[in-house]
Amino acid sequence: MFDNLSEKLDKALHVLKGHGQITEINVAETLKEVRRALLDADVNFKIAKEFTNKVKEKALGQDVLTSLQPGQLMVKLVKDELTELMGGDAEGIDLSGTPSVILMSGLQGSGKTTFSGKLANYLLAKKNKKPLLVACDVYRPAAIDQLHVVGEQIGVEVFSDRGNNDPVAISKAGIAHAKANGFNVVIIDTAGRLAVDEQMMNEIANIHKAIQPQETLFVVDSMTGQDAVNTAKAFNDVLNFDGVILTKLDGDTRGGAAISIKSVVNKPIKFIGTGEKMDAIDVFYPSRMAERILG
Ligand code: GDP
Predict the structure, then answer these.
(1) Which part of the chain is the SRP54-type proteins GTP-binding domain (predicted)?
(2) For residue 64, what pLDDT is reported?
(3) What is the position in ligand 1's atom list of the atom closest to the CA of 110?
(4) Handedness of CA 13, 79, 22, 35 (dihedral sign)
(5) By CB atoms within 10 Å of each CB, which of 16, 59, 111, 206 scores lowest?
(6) Residue whose CB lies within 8 A of the most ligand 1 atoms, among 1, 108, 113, 114, for a mutation test
């Protein structure tokens, strides 16, 4: 994961090793390399600049730590800042509702249906919940079939209504079905388009308004880099969502989305998808990810 970024940051920070003292000059040189590594990873220019400015301020104010190796100190400062940028401590999802309703949003192909299945599987196996999946993509019959396949695979019931083309009505009926049948979590998989458009935004906004979910999650393909960040902003403007799901982190993504998205929409990344299989889901821990990136 993020091998290229890891390698570049490692190289940048190693420059300082061998210097007895952190001086303004070698800090500046190192941070230039760090910034370059972030830009190469598809982190937005402004974010990369702010990042290195913050690390610089801290580095120059750290007299107490001069006894440490300067290289190690810089690694620590970069790691702390990376953790901070990606969201500080992990936050869970709200499962307090009866049932808890979780609305999935995002573009087509982002991994919504796959992640809906993964989340249901995770809640069933790890949180002792009884989830219901609800198929609300009224445009693509194949999407409904796909959710049924996923449901069968993990042993979770899927609610759908093929003749109905009103996603608000289907989601409400799904929630009523959950209430009547003892399901305590409802995961609503919605339609997505290939790009942000008004109709899709209106549709998801209407569903959101009608069902008032405990959690609205925005699913995004991490391989799409800065586009992922722009899409997140568009969805957040309309939905004020609660958290981000970053999928396809197993691919050769450069990592820019993982690093930038929190600071742009100010919402935590809650889970990551790391493969096509139903168990390829991880809770997102910014500090662990920073640890991984910096080795
Ligand atoms: P949706 O249109 O948003 O519902 O997207 P899908 O769930 O259908 O996913 C689109 C494609 O991405 C499918 O081929 C999935 O198998 C694949 N996919 C989803 N999540 C991941 C992931 O975390 N890693 C990888 N490698 N593939 C994924």
Answers:
(1) 268-281
(2) 39
(3) 3
(4) positive
(5) 206
(6) 114
